[in-house]
Amino acid sequence: MSKVKPSFWGLGLAALVVFPLIVTNPTWTTIGVFSLLFMACATSWNMFSGYSGYVSLGTGIFYGCGAYTMALVSEHAHMAGGEAQFWLVPLAGLVAMVVAVPVGAIALRVRRHTFVVITIALFFVFQLLAINASFTGGAAGISLPLIPWLFNYYNLPFYYVALGVVIFATLLSAAVRRSRFGLQLLAIRDDEDRALGLGVRVTAVKLTGFTLSAFAIGMSGALYAMFVGQIYPQFVFDPNFDITVALMAFLGGFGTLLGPLLGGLILEASQQYLTLYFSNSSLYLILFGVLFLLVILFMPQGIVPAVSKLWAGRGAKRDRESTAETVTNTAKGTVVEPTPAGAKP
Amino acid sequence: MVTLLEATGVSRSFGGVKALAGCSLSVEKGSITGLIGPNGSGKTTLFNVMTGYVKPDSGTVFFDGHDVTNARPNKIFALGVGRTFQLTRIFARITVIENMLVATQRDESWLRGLTRSKSSKSELDAAMEWLDFVGLSQLASLQAGSLSYGQRKLLELAYVLVADPDVILLDEPAGGVNLTLINEISDKILALNRDGKTFLIVEHNMEFVMKICHKVTVMHQGCDLVTGTPEEVRSNPAVLDAYLGSSDDEMEDATNG
User: Fold this and answer.
1) For A183, which of B89, B102, B115 is closest by C-beta distance?
2) Fewest CB atoms within 10 Å of the CB: A221, A290, A309, B185?
3) C-alpha to C-alpha distance for B256 and A147, rounded to whole angstroms
């Protein structure tokens, strides 16, 4: 799908790896950790919703379940705060996947707008459970064991584990895109009934995709809980999270590999930065409004498809001896979906 | 001759409308069977029942000895019944060749799809061969959404063929395409039939039906009215009545042949 050059990916990865070594200010590395968590979530969300067209706004369910897994297991196993807790991260991902099976089985029975509404409803069911159930500590939340790391070192392990989750989510998303399974998801996005009539087991394929996408989101939630050290139900089961993750993918490029990474980085980093430096002013909300307006007006498919189309157009202009039609440009033009993203719910 | 696909006494209502009222139809192996009838006589509903998209209220559907009455569309497809739709349906935002690959798996387990790549060499070759057959191989790497209507019809035919079904149900293959393409499509169907493929075709273009079908069933108000060779059907008074009873001008087509 993505014809972004391997060298570009290498460069991006290298930049992410060296970032906390060069910028050692904890304020900035904190922004880095949060950005990575959102990049992982947006990529993983896009792996199901972007490919299949089933826009889920229940992402917070998996994030919250991941966070609570980390918090509850650390608490009940009397773990000392520290590196050992990182072993719980994949466990939290697995718990999120287990939760995703019944959630998907219910929500995926319906399509389009109804699916979106059902995912929101199920999300609030989980939020209420977290607030009211006895084992979650209720609205008071749960404190995690204190991690006795030095102030200057604290962010570093989180940063690299989060980067690992981002790499995992990206590789998984790329592998899915290349597999027969991914092709089936794309076929479902374009015409589910037709795919069914061509032998695609749509129910199984959708549920598998939905469950797979929960893994990295659950892991991100667990890292978040461990990183902030104290969780509250309304912050780990946060409706804003559901919307933010979806917006990141739409901003960067729905259904593309690079798009959600870029969207997550841009949105989360700028939001953290703006809240830090213009706190209480809500200025960032105004700036976000402007940003979304610009993207919707000028690149409705998201940043990545728009830029790569521009790039392809420039390349075609350069070697114009063949009177190539615009059609061939689009064929060459990589990641793009020709229909406007506005056509999607 | 052996009956390959058979619907017996199929009924189906949508609210108060009886779309099918005890309709029976049999398709013999190696034949090209036509299914005609006025608009709203239940042809497409019968197609939907036979391919698993609509569950019948009563009646049975058998394919090659299997009871497929309540089977899901993917199961029926895996057994060897392919179909096209009246309003052509392709996957618009993936490439032409990827459209072809969606259909190649037929009975693969869904878990296998996770671990294998999009296509194997042999699947890709088969897909290109069928694209070549319908004359679209030049367009293989284009987005399918950029194809013209006629090209979409051919693509839909090609990706049904790539799974090598035993019987192919075509819903108005000649609808909305120009005369040259109609002839091209009928030539393709005849060529495939010579290689042993069985066809069931819904079509309003009588010339097309009379030219290629061995046997024609006429439907009227959800029932099968008459079945016979094209000549028999054309001269049957009940058929003329059925068409006269509707407000369509199809009677002219039917009588002129």
Assistant:
1) B102
2) A290
3) 89
Q: Which among A238, A204, A212, A207 has a CA at the least distance from the CA of A224?
A: A238
Cα–Cα dist A293/B136, whole Å: 41
Task: Report ipTM (2 d.p.).
Answer: 0.85
pLDDT digits (tens, 9 = 90+) for A4-34: 678 888 898 988 888 888 888 888 899 999 9
Q: Which residue of B has its CA nearest to A192?
A: B91
Answer positive or negative: Cα dihedral of A101, A106, A112, A113.
negative
* Residue B55 in contact with partner chain A when CB distance is under 8 A: no
Q: Which residues of A touch B141 (CB under 8 A)?
A: 331
User: Which of B50, B110, B161 to mutate to test binding with chain A, by most A CBs within 10 Å of its CB?
Assistant: B110
Residues of A in contact with B50 (CB under 8 A): none
pLDDT average, residue stretch A305-327:
63
Instruction: List the beta strands (DSSP E) in chain B.
Output: 3-14, 17-28, 32-36, 58-63, 66-67, 81-83, 167-171, 198-202, 215-220, 223-228
Name the residue among A191, A208, A331 with its Cβ closest to that of B142. Answer: A331
